[in-house]
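Lab notebook page, bench 4
Experiment: in silico fold of construct C2
Operator: M.H.
Input chain length: 226 residues
Purpose: comparison with the prior construct
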Amino acid sequence: MSSRRLHVGSENDLIFSPKEGISKTRLLLLLAASLVVGFVAGILIGRYATQNEDHSPPEIPDVSLPLVRDADPTISKKILDAIDPARIEANLRYLSEKPHIAGRERDFELVKQLKKIFVDSGMYVQITPYDALLSYPSDDTPNSVRILDGNNTVVYDAKADESNFSNYEGVVPPFNAYSPNRLVEGSLVYAGYGRVEDYIWLAQNNINVSGSIVIVKYGSIFRGDK
C-alpha cells in the first residue's frame, strides 16, 4: 500500500521573507510615530489657531456667542429704573424706627407687615409659629457692672441704660443673652479683641486668665466668637 504525503506550501509560499519582515516592522513603527505626531499637532492647532489675537472666544453662530456675550442692557436699565432710593429710605426707617427684639410684639408686627407687602406683590407667604428659647433682661432688676477696689468700694459703675435711646419706647437695657443672673467677682484681665492670638500673647507673657474677669472690646472678629 503506497502512501501519499500532502505537501502544503513551501518556503516560496511565505508571505514575507525574514528580510522583508524587518522592513515591515520599521514601516509599522514609522506609521505609528507619524500618527502620534499628527495627533499632537492637531491638538496644538485646535488650541491656538482658532483664537483671535485678543484671545477672544471663536465666533460660532448660535452656539458660543449667546453664552459669552454681555446681558441685555435694556433689562439692566429696567431693573435700575424700578429702584426708588426714597422708597428704600422710607422702608428702612419704618423697619428700624422702633426696637423690635426677637419674639416681642413689635417684631411680630413687622412680620405681618412684610407678609402684606409680599402678598400685594403677588407672592404666596405663610407664617409658621414655633417655640424658641429666648432670654430677656429684667426691667425691674437690670444687670450692672461695677469695679471695686481693695476695700470693696465702688470705683466705677457702668450705666444700666443707653442714654441716647432710653427715652424710646421698647428699648431694653444692655444684657448678655442666655447668661444667667449671677454675682461674679475676680481680677480683671484685658484681652484686646478676644482673638486666639490675644490669648496666646497673654499665655506667652505668663498671664493666667483662669478665675478672672476678661475684658474684651468690640471689633476685628464677630462678637459671638469672643
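Observations: The longest strand covers residues 154-157. Residues 18-69 form one domain.
Next step: discuss at group meeting.
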